[in-house]
Amino acid sequence: MVATDGVTGAGRALVVTDLVKSFAGVTVLHSVNLGVRAGSVVGLIGENGAGKSTTSSIIAGIQQPDSGLMTIDGVAYAPASPADALASGVALIHQEIRTVPHLSIAENIFLGRLPRAGLRVDRDAMVEQAREVLRKLGIDIDPRRPVRGLSIAMQQSIEIAKAITRNPRYVIFDEPSASLTNQETDRVLHQISVLREHGAGIIYISHRLEEVRTISDEIVCMRDGNVVATWQSGDVPQRELVRAMVGRDFVFGHEAPAPASPEVVLEVHDLSRKGVFDGIDFTVAKGEILGIAGLVGAGRTEVVRAIAGVDKADGGAVTVEGRKIRLRNPGHALKAGIVMVPEDRKQQGLNLTLDSSRNIVSPWERILRVRGIVTKGWINRIAEDSRTAFDIRGSLDRPVVRLSGGNQQKVLLAKWLVRQPKVLILDEPTRGVDVGAKMSIYAIIRDYAARGVAVILVSSELEEVLGLAHRVLVMSGGRQIAVLPRDEATSETVMSLAVPQTIA
Amino acid sequence: MSTNTDSADESPSASRMLARKRSAMRIFGGPTIGLVVMFIGLTLKSPYFLTVRNLGNILSQITDIGVLAAGATLVILIAGIDLSVAANMALTMMFTASLYADHHWPFVVTLIAGLLLGAFVGAINGLLATYGKVQPFVATLATMSACLGLALVITDGNTINGFPTWFVNFATVDLFGFLPLQAVIMMLIYLALAFWLRFRPGGRALYAIGGNEEVARLSGIPVLRMKTLVYMIAGALAAVAGWVDISTLDSAQPTAGANYLLNVIAVVVIGGASLSGGVGTMGSTFIGLLIIGVLNNGLSLTGVNPNLQPVVVGAVILAAVLTDRNARKAHG
């Protein structure tokens, strides 16, 4: 870091030096250096997976680094737990909100350290202190009411109040605005400046570059686990920030063959879901791969879930091969030839305690065995076919949870591809798998496209979308911003469309 | 052919054989061993135990609970609970008996009316627990209370006696001289449900639902419809258990089955089902049923104070659950 040398001598600062962290052999942080002075805001930007969250969770004591040094005001700092970090004056405000709905606002703020008077909780003192801190944050609300029913923004403010009452010297905000409206975001930004005036050092992580530019005294950009650029002021052109975030060559080229035919398989017309997305309108042709790109929270997953019948859409129509389909549940979509490989393997994709074979046949028992009998022989035959087709290594008769991440992901794909679908939707198909498994999953996707399946690929990894897709649909804030043909889709064009424009 | 025994390189057929062996061990695991031990012990202890007449008695005594436990197994498989089964049984019994004795409907029609009422109560449970988003414990607690009250209302708390002889014969006629006809019918219910759970998509879906509802839903399984159906089956089986009681006692009492509920759940749990869903078979419930039957019979034969019998049942429940958990840990 450019500024750190001066800082350690001159004033108080949290300094991170040479942080290295790897998970299961994959290095996610290569030598990260970062510093934040007391009374200043550092904006931390980067694509999904760049290492921002890992860095912040190491600083906040949630994870421990493989190597590297941290100091606070020149004193060595190595938190073993979030409680440790808090004791040293470092607080992390999560993207997701963790409040207890049935407790009052005041109790949430002081959870785990309720003020006492003798044997009982000193309610009056607690409420008074809570009122005080809320006023400081510019929030006018009765601290005695329960948190249940409050808006996400208000709950976020309560989290901030909770952090403030611990008098932290350094606070990390991990995408606090991801689910907030512009007005609500302004309030968070105001609260951050209150903290700064009280002398706290802030690390502010956000995808919204406008906000980062407004609030930061310094901006740091991460990419692939490295700090790639640093600016000594917040006043940096957005284009420059975007280029720093994505600026890299692709590791794989456009290998997918052009769509075999212009024949449209899937047509999505003016699809909408109140408050989540609207105006979604696109087609996918036979053998075509359509990528859907956008930031977290842009509504990508919600759109494909609606197409697969998992969530109900409020308006619009979906047709497959010219026939309009009813989408009241996933069973309808399956019967119409639409399959979706869900994003969350553990919560949505696989029943981890059941064996792989039974997982694989689960969606197909009704469809392929109408009026029929499901025998062990049939199950084993399908499971063996899947093993060969998807190169699954390990026993299919054991609980899925016993397989490696990559093999679990292959079981997940196999489960949905027992029968060749007309439309294949993949939501984050390579999340949490190693590079080798990634490559074989890419090969599977290309193979299915080559066989004439219409493929929709949702991925947070832009290079994955750009490397596989024939066209790229860019979403932002629940809206379809553009559908770019392959030769117009570059990381710069996609990212600049995907970043929400605060002025709207 | 590889002779490598490293688990990662297991050939498919070898690993399949291992898996089969593992599941076989589970079936013949703790509960079955416990049953066999009890059986041998009682045979040595009491000369009366291993007689055709006593074994027939055991079967007759567990038939009604067995029918209820069959339904409860399905409900527990989908991670639900049905507290209303025994009360539903009492209600449908009184409904059937009253239609027959007070309103002089043809008996077969009253039986079917009882069956429909049982299924209807089950449907209410199911709809509340699914579309109504009421926790099944609460939903069935409410219907249990209502059923208990209605069972009393129908005849003002009076008992109805005197049913057709052919129906009472179900309890008295033995097949092959020792198998009570009722018990045969109960076993047929177990076989049918076992077939459904094992070979039919609908029955197999219950394991998926109990294991992870969201995964099941995304797999195209109509989760809410299946759950409602399961509660309806449990309700209909409550009515069948009521038939059994009418035919055994040749009378219908509104307080029948007052202490059945906990025994029903005990049977399912002793068999090895998990209250968190997704684990359990009809076979294991049947073993649990036999354990309860043999246990109660044995305690009476050996002259244990009847008031102590529930204490022993409690101990057996704990023993069953703890050994099952250890076995599972060992096998993984």
Explain what the structure shows.
The complex is a heterodimer of chains A (504) and B (332). Chain A has 19 helices and 22 strands. By secondary structure, chain A is an alpha/beta fold. Chain A folds into three domains: 4-99 and 147-246, Rossmann fold (3-Layer(aba) Sandwich); 251-337 and 421-504, 3-Layer(aba) Sandwich (Rossmann fold); 355-419, no CATH class. In chain A, α6 (152-165) runs parallel beside α7 and α9 (238-246) packs across α19 (491-498). The longest helix of chain A is centred in the middle third of the chain and has 16 residues, at 182-197. Chain B is globular, with a radius of gyration of 21 Å. Chain B is mainly alpha-helical and 332 residues long. The longest helix of chain B has 27 residues, at 223-249. Chain B has a two-stranded antiparallel ribbon. A two-stranded antiparallel ribbon of chain B has the order 2-3. Chain B contains 14 helices and four strands. In chain B, α3 (52-77) packs across α13. Chain A binds chain B through residues 308, 310, 329-331, 333-335, 340, 342, 347-355, 358, 362-363, 365-367, 369, 372-375, 380, 384, 387, 393-398, 402, 415, and chain B through 7-8, 10, 12, 15-16, 18-19, 198-202, 204-205, 207-208, 211-212, 214-222, 278, 332.
Annotation keywords:
heterodimer, A: 504 residues, alpha/beta, Rossmann fold, 3 domains, six-stranded mixed beta sheet, 22 strands, B: 332 residues, mainly alpha, ABC transporter involved in vitamin B12 uptake, BtuC, two-stranded antiparallel sheet, two-stranded antiparallel ribbon, 14 helices, 4 strands, globular, disordered N terminus
CATH architecture of chain B: Orthogonal Bundle
> Considering DSSP H and I runs of 4 or more, what fraction of the residues of chain A is helical?
25-40%
Quantity of strands of chain B, as a count: 4
With strands numbered from the N-terminus, the spatial order across the biggest sheet of chain A is 6-9-10-3-11-12
Distance between the termini of chain A: 35 Å
Largest β sheet strand count, sense and barrel closure of chain A: 6 strands, mixed
Total domain modules of chain B: 1
Could you tell me the mean pLDDT of chain A? 85
Instruction: Work out the helix count of chain A.
Output: 19
Please tell me what the overall shape of chain A is. Answer: globular
Oligomer: heterodimer
Class of secondary structure makeup of chain B: mainly alpha
Q: Find the biggest chain interface.
A: A-B, 41 and 30 residues
Number of domains of chain A: 3
Uncertain regions spanning at least 5 consecutive residues of chain B: 1-12
> Helix amount of chain B, in percent?
over 70%
- The second-level CATH architecture of the largest domain in chain A is 3-Layer(aba) Sandwich
Residue stretches of chain A low in confidence (pLDDT < 50, at least 5 long) are 1-10
* N-to-C series of helices and strands of chain B: HHHHHHEHEEHHHHEHHH
